[in-house]
Amino acid sequence: MVRTILHIDMNAYFASVEQQSTPALRGKPIAVVGAGHRTVITTCSYEARARGVKTGMAIWEGKRCCPELIIVIADNRKYTDTSRRIMTMMREYTPLVQVFSIDEAFMDVTGSLALFGPAENIAYQIKSRIRFQFGLTCSIGIAPNKLLAKLASEMQKPDGLTVITPDQVAAVMEKSPIEELCGIGNKSMRQLNLLGIHTCGQLGRYPVAVLSRKFGIIGQQLHRMGQGMDDSPVIPDEEAEPVKSVGHSMTLPQDVDSREEILRYLLQLSEMVGRRARRYGVAGRTVGLYVRYADFDSSFNKQQTLHAPSNLTDDIFRSVLAILDTVTLPQPVRLLGVRITNLRHQGDQQLPLFPQERRKVLATLAMDAINARFGDKVTFGTLLVGEESVRGSHVISPAWRPEGIRCVDVQ
Description:
- The protein has helices spanning 13-21, 46-49, 59-65, 76-90, 113-116, 119-134, 146-153, 169-175, 186-194, 200-205, 208-215, 218-226, 259-279, 313-324, 355-374; strands spanning 5-10, 30-33, 41-44, 70-73, 97-101, 104-108, 138-143, 161-163, 245-256, 282-293, 299-310, 333-345.
- By secondary structure, the chain is α+β, with helices and mostly antiparallel strands.
- The protein folds into 3 domains: 1-164, Alpha-Beta Plaits (2-Layer Sandwich), CATH 3.30.70.270; 169-226, 5' to 3' exonuclease, C-terminal subdomain (DNA polymerase, domain 1), CATH 1.10.150.20; 241-391, Dna Ligase, domain 1, CATH 3.30.1490.100.
């Protein structure tokens, strides 16, 4: 049976939400950024894009392209709340909704066509409701599988609707550049280019044996992608596989070589990771530390295994500190990241037997409860010393999903 898959991609999502909530920003070039001194443009409005501003630029680069660029500090709660409501609306058409990121989702409407009519009708209804209820626009791709639906949604932006029917697949793949396929990044693209492969059609015709020798088991998958083939199902969040890690990273406001300052940032990151893990009832057996140096090319990534799974900030921080003590930092640090892996779902956690450990757990849970209710009012005294920026910016990555535990990069 031929499936009917929709891919919904919100247009310039963070910037559009800001323009909708603040009428004075509508029609103007804006860029959404983090609160830190060294932050990059998370996204920008189409008015700014027309002036050459791009996601990932430093603020000064954006201002050079567009001197009248308006800088807006990100408001994560606003974006996640809007995203949740949009995803809820999508589930009125089918239970098979897979949240791909905060501003993207797949829908399998194969079983919904008898109720709502052709897929184009469903897409137009969704576009109309998103515009009317939220004041936002989206681009939608319709195709027989997820790979092609996402490719289609990129073809007409903003506010587009593109349909790829089964008999159009070969022609579409023949002319589409390989980098437009979801799953082919810059590194893979460069390696494929060296083989003379620049379009999806060329990839689909290339000898699969050669691709397998070059890329291993991924070679067969690349060959199928080049032919527009994808059997992966649309998996609702409640049926998705359990998350395998919880992590946060942070680009520092300025290059840091002071051990004291580095430890303060690591404590903050440990608390962010621990709190998120505790919220969803998981604990990690392995703690990882990632450090990127000032030249932005050199880095290291090391892990340490705990005696038992934990989600307590103190345990995570002590493990990170032990890892840091094993290395000598050759230059100032630009980015730090903390992650826990080998997760275990705890269910109803039993308090430790020994009083000292029990007090630590109870104090941690009390901090979580206060912060959940009143909004980050309680933290470690160390994080209140010095510059306010040490407490960090909380910019949500566009790849973050609004439901469940996800790996979040804080820039």
